[in-house]
Amino acid sequence: MKKLLSLLVTLMIYFNVYGQAGAHIHGGLLSGQFATASLTPEGTVHRGWRIGVDARLHSDKMFFTGGVHYYKFAFDAADGGEYFKPGDSYSVQKARFGLGLNIIEIPRIMKVRGKILGSVNLISAPDDRDLPSPFERMNDGYGSLDFGIGIDVLFFTIDVEYEKGLQNAVNEAPDTKIDYWSLTAGVFF
Fold first, then answer.
1. SS3 3
2. How many CA atoms are closer than 13 Å to the CA of 135, on its beta-carbon side?
3. I need a labelling partner for 189 at 20 to 30 A (CA). Which of 30, 41, 172, 176 fits?
4. How far apart are CA 33 and CA 164, in angstroms?
């Protein structure tokens, strides 16, 4: 326990002295589409919301980033609907790690940054939820790549991200990769 505590204190001191250590806490809206029209008919999306925290480590133009997130999505696709009341829904718990790049920087005032991350996504879905035929149930998880661009103004942040599903999200069903767009706002400290 003492070794773990010593390691954490050392890392905190290192990143506060030598890097851009900090956390980006954010939340926002998202919409997703499965690759198959059976789950997401043309002109519809699965709406929901997300919250998360990301860390940025290093102070040069390029930085490491990683974080954890929680998503809540509607099972049923619609051409309208509410983001914060997805009704019959599933959730995704995400862990991700990758690289970021400060594209434009006005020191202490503004940064425009890009990022690419690899993600592991765990799905929580009610057991009694019936998916449209011929689908049986959601997988326990899938992998994805996350691409994003964001802006920091003082300590406020806004990000737009696109998540490209790499694996099928529905058990034993082809063409069930899901892609998401999200818009979040938050603070960096």
1. helix
2. 22
3. 30
4. 10
State the Cα–Cα distance between residues 181 and 14, nearest whole angstrom: 35
Q: What angle do CA 143, 150, 30 make, to 5 degrees?
A: 50
Instruction: Give the number of other Cβ atoms within 10 Å of residue 130's Cβ.
Output: 11
Structure-token match 């939820």, residue found: 129
Each residue's pLDDT tens digit, 32-87: 998 888 888 888 998 999 999 999 987 678 999 999 999 998 878 888 777 777 66
Q: Report which of 181, 161, 68 is spatially closest to residue 122, judged by C-alpha positions.
A: 68
CA 30 to chain centre: 10
Two tokens, residue 40: 């997401």
pTM over 0.85: no
Work out the pLDDT band at 20, boundaries 50, 70, 90: low
Q: How many CB atoms lie within 10 A of CB 114?
A: 13
